[in-house]
Amino acid sequence: MAENYNLFLLICGIAFLFGALFPIVFKRAPISLPMLQVTLGIIVGYFWITLTFLDPLKNGMIIEKLTEIVVLVSLVGAGIKIDTPLSWRLWRPTVRLLLITMPIGIFAMAFLGYYAFGLSMGAAILLGAVLAPTDPVLASSIQVGPPNTGSEDTPRFTLTSEAGLNDGLAFPFVYLAIKIAEAYSEGKRFDGEMLWSWFTHDVLWKIGAGVVAGIIVGKILAKIVFSKHTNETTISQGYVVIALTFLAYGLAELVHSYGFIAVFVAAFTFRRSECEHTYHQKLHDFAEQSEGLLMSLVLVTFGMFIGQGLQSGVELTWRVYIISFTFLLLIRPVGGIFALSGLNMHHTEKYAISALGIRGIGTLYYLSYALNQGFFGEEDAIKLWVVCSIVILASIFVHGLSAPWLLKMTPKKAHD
Fold this sequence. Notes:
By secondary structure, the protein is an all-alpha fold. 73% of the residues lie in helices and 0% in strands. It starts with a helix and ends in an 8-residue tail after the last helix.
């Protein structure tokens, strides 16, 4: 085990080196850093190393906590980098993606999971819920740039704000899946009373309280940092980023709401305070560096998990591939185009936003969190891990190759 651990550290060191040299060595190559790092993990996992902690059914708690930290840091980075003020006209595309495209994705994948993969009702809804949100971690390369560095175009802003918010908004459907699985495991039926309880508590209360918690934390920290009695240049950016993350998340969870929503809202609220200040740039730089390091660790580990699965002969039927690509190349784009129809946007902008629904580390977190509750059978759990892993892997390569081309063909103009 010690030998494997040391080799694991060596592989992670290589992945970090790839991250450092990527802008120089691979500048002209048609690949993304996640593609490179996950490929390294697959090769290592398949040929050279076997680590028992990569078994998601036995060590789901490790996966849950590691991916949770990565997503939280990414949400802070997404909230801090947005220059666009809170305006209905400017945020309308984001709202439509959240309220129309995401439910379409949940329903479509739940339908396919139930009828094509033979999942139980709870597991089918869970499949839709964990794959519906776009990923704020892997989508960082298609998001807006650092604070106050120039005007934001509509596609990048919409993709950034969508990824920041829909990670938290997917949680009600994850809880719905858990409650259905819990009811059936106890021999009960999921009735109207349970549905009403889910809607009032898991939807209305938890979303609303999460937003309020984020606003409170963001405003309080902004008051402290930008107070006339405080010299913000002496306040460590690292401490502020971590404080913003943990305070928002901790307060939201303490009042039984959604910490992911609170963290993004707190970061955005903080960003809107003294929005022209250079301190936001420093916060963003720290968050981006932290996110990149954690992302590299998760991607290499995910690649090794895929490699070990291939080596052990995990069954991958044609349904897995067809449905995975159907979701990425048909369901999300069609749902996005439908949601954005009627808006005053160029058609290439609508297509780029609709097509670039990247899935990634957030999916791993939601899936491990739900399965760790202990209400889903092993057969369902294996199917869920297989399907979600293939969707994430396909997304890394499909979107990694297509994103530069899709964004390049959109008009280079700021939204106003």
